[in-house]
Specification:
The structure holds two protein chains of two kinds. Chain A starts with a helix and ends in an 11-residue tail after the last helix. Chain A is mainly alpha-helical. Chain A has 14 helices and two strands; from the N terminus they run αααααααββααααααα. In chain A, strands 1-2 form a two-stranded antiparallel sheet. Chain A is globular. In chain A, helix 6 packs across helix 8 and helix 13 crosses helix 14. Chain A has a domain of about 180 residues: MetI-like (MetI-like fold, Orthogonal Bundle), CATH 1.10.3720. By secondary structure, chain B is α+β, with helices and mostly antiparallel strands. Chain B has two domains: about 220 residues, D-Maltodextrin-Binding Protein, domain 2, CATH 3.40.190.10; about 220 residues, Dipeptide-binding Protein, Domain 3 (Dipeptide-binding Protein, domain 3, Roll), CATH 3.10.105. Helices cover about 30% and strands about 20% of the residues of chain B. Chain B is built from 17 helices and 22 strands. In chain B, strands 11, 12, 13, 17, 18, 19 and 20 form a seven-stranded mixed beta sheet that branches. A four-stranded mixed beta sheet of chain B has the order 1-10-9-8, with no helix packed on it. A four-stranded antiparallel beta sheet of chain B has the order 4-5-7-6, with helices on one face. In chain B, strand 4 and strand 5 form a beta hairpin. In chain B, helix 10 packs antiparallel against helix 12 and helix 16 packs antiparallel against helix 17. The radius of gyration of chain B is 28 Å and the shape is globular. The chains are: A mainly alpha, B alpha+beta. At the A-B interface, helix 2, helix 3, helix 5, helix 7 and strand 1 of A face helix 1, helix 4, helix 8 and helix 14 of B.
Amino acid sequence: MGAYVVRRLFWLPIILLVVSFATFAIARFGPGDPISVAAGQIRDDEIVAQIRADRGLDGNIFEQYQDWLFKAVRGDFGESFQQRGFTISEIIFPKMWVSAQLGMIALVIVFGLGIPFGLIAARANGTWIDPFVIGTLLFLQAIPVLVLIPPLLWLFAVQFDLLPVGGWDGLFDIWLIGGVIAIPIPDPHLYIPLVAFTLPGFAGIARLTRITALEVQQEDYIRTARAKGLPESSVALRHVLPNSLLPLVTVIAFALAGIVEGAFFVETLLGIPGIGRFTFQAVTSRDYDAILATTVIFAAIFVLMNLAADLVYGVIDPRIRVGVSRQ
Amino acid sequence: MGQNRILAILLGVLAALVLVVGGLSAVLLFSSDSDNTGPTGVSSGSNELQRTTGDDEPSSSSSGRLRLGGVDPVTLDPHLATDASSAEYIVEIYSGLVTISPDLEIQLDLAEAVDISADGTVYTFTMRENAFFHSGRPVTAVDVAYSINRATSRQLQSTVARAYLGDIVGVREHIAGVADDVSGIEVIDKRTIRFTLDAPKPFFLAKLTYPTAFVVDQQQIESNPRNWTRRPNGTGPYRLTEWRLGERIILESNARYYLDEPPLAEVLYTLSGGSALTRFENDELDVAGISVNDIERARDSTSSLNPLYSVWPQFTISYLAFTTDVPPFEDVNVRRALGFSIDRAKVAEVTFSNMLVPATGILTPGLPGYVDEDKTFPFDPDAGREALAASKYEVEDGRLIGPDGPVPIVITEAGGGAEARIDTQAFLEQWRTELGIEVEIRQTDFATFLSEQDAGELQMFNAGWIMDYPDPEDILDLKFHSTSQLNELGYANAQVDSLLERARVELDAELRMQLYRDAEELIIADAAWLPLYFSQSHVVVNEAVTGWFEPPMVIPRLRFVEIDR
């Protein structure tokens, strides 16, 4: 298994190389560049040409890529054109952290609620509860966040004045009781984005859990378990549940990769300074270095999460042997 | 074994869930209690400012906190900034020799007197005695000279330095890197500085109000060349005390400000957050812009927004432009025909709910040289058809057929949506019905648009211009003089050129404006641009705020604002 991990990790730099070069080339193929966007309506062609030369934007694409690569491996992703005087790392890591915090909590809620609901629906298969739960969930999953957020804002922010309209102020506020006891409580800016993040995801996980649980129930070993007289609760907890969760591992891995990528719509509508919104802005203003940095980091996380999922599979399912070729 | 582990994981997840849901409901229950912690929902001491109060800090007499929405500035280096969102902060934090007052007059600022030589080429400024940097260091003529030299240095690569400061003798050489400093700047003594211009430039003071000429602190820049803009030491009425990227910017009043400390103690710009109007209604912001979706509500006299709503003209014009040296637009009659066939008043009403006003010329209301009469083509389809008939093109099956065959017409606009701008669509429809011409819409992203516009590759395009300083030179000379770098239209009219050149050096202000008005008239008759709309700013302002105004261009304004809360 150690060898397997090493082999997989060996591919990581190669994948990143391909991804980064493709991104690099695609971003530069279009006409226009970040300098013309940044220069404003009164431009100075000589200075623009000079900046282009200094930034290495007028050389051949392979040389430019080589320059970028040498800097990137040292952790220098360059400087943003949207935010002068800040390095890309200074800008994107805090934004990724904002997105990741929100995403992590959302993920916990999604799986925490989704799995039990899916199991309930599966166990109730054949009664009215199953279609009712699934129908409700399908409905929830079908609501786009663009439609979901405005009524939430109207209700909780404007009508009842309970929550702020958007923005970001960290995960926790500290409430002091009597000036002595400090209680961390979730910041009120979190609730609406969390609902927007979790509703569709939660429904998806519940449906996936239900389907796999139903499949597992048809398996021979479940019949065997019942045949040898195990009580129904033991069958459900010890046999159905763990086996239904297997496919979820893959989903969790992808979801974990997704949380650092942020969510463009939620972040834009609620004005959350996350990485999703930033990436979009980077693309529209041709902020080459920012586009590259985010793409490469996302790709790396994606590859690593995939690897993690494969390894976890091997640990939790004895039938799957990671890295062992069939003799 | 593996199954037990999974059960354990599942239980852990459930436990976490219980905690989160429990926390959520607790907060929902108690959140009504947290109202007194401030309307921004900041309920802890996390927003307490880390104030480094020096011993010699004068005591503050100002009060109140104004809450505005904002965006991260691209840069707070006044010499590099080119965009309005950066300038918004820069004009409050820094200042220069001259500024623009709320009624758009050019006023002395760091300077207390200016002497202009009879031939209009030598400007001698006397500086105020009581001007200080935020740090407490006095501002002298040496700081001004350093700042202009820095702004025009080859290393800094400011894309606007030549446009704003290029009239000073030696600036061009300095930008090119062939001179060590600007020869036309002379420090006479601590409080006196002299600028020599390459010719009389009646608009020189207007250009000097732009941030490129603002004063920066040499000591700070040299001790922290990379990051000094994160807490700049300016000379303006406000100083930056906090900037959290993407989250907030806090400006505090400068107790040492030479025109007395501003009455408003603190301005909080929230850089994140959703719809500004919703936040305004939720009492999170004191000022919010109104979009076309909410305009009816703001105008409705029974709405709670209505008493807080106001409209302010802006120095911004949108226009359709033609590249005048490519077919079919090398023929002025085709351009005129298109101009006569669009009903801008109708489009303003139907698609913009009259939030924009149809342009009456190229110079916007409030600009020197503006006259209140409509110089543009009226909506007159008959005149349009006549103009087209007089052209060398004929219409056949929706196409223009010229001497060398059919010439397709493509209008380009910047945009990323699946749909074209709604006004462009309306114009296309009007050209189709009134002239029988089919025009194709092409959308590109902004970077592509700019690059094609610069290269003069766009046959026809929909764009806008925001005035940088209140002088007609900033639009007429820059966009329409045949040799201007910003004239992407291939437009050349010798008569216009001559008028613009005379206006550049004319010292009699009234005569100068007349020259610009004449040039404007010729340009409109030539239909190089079809002026479309003048922009307006539509805002709602909290009733606790007095003195708020929306200037037509970015100028310092916070020191005129007070808040009673």
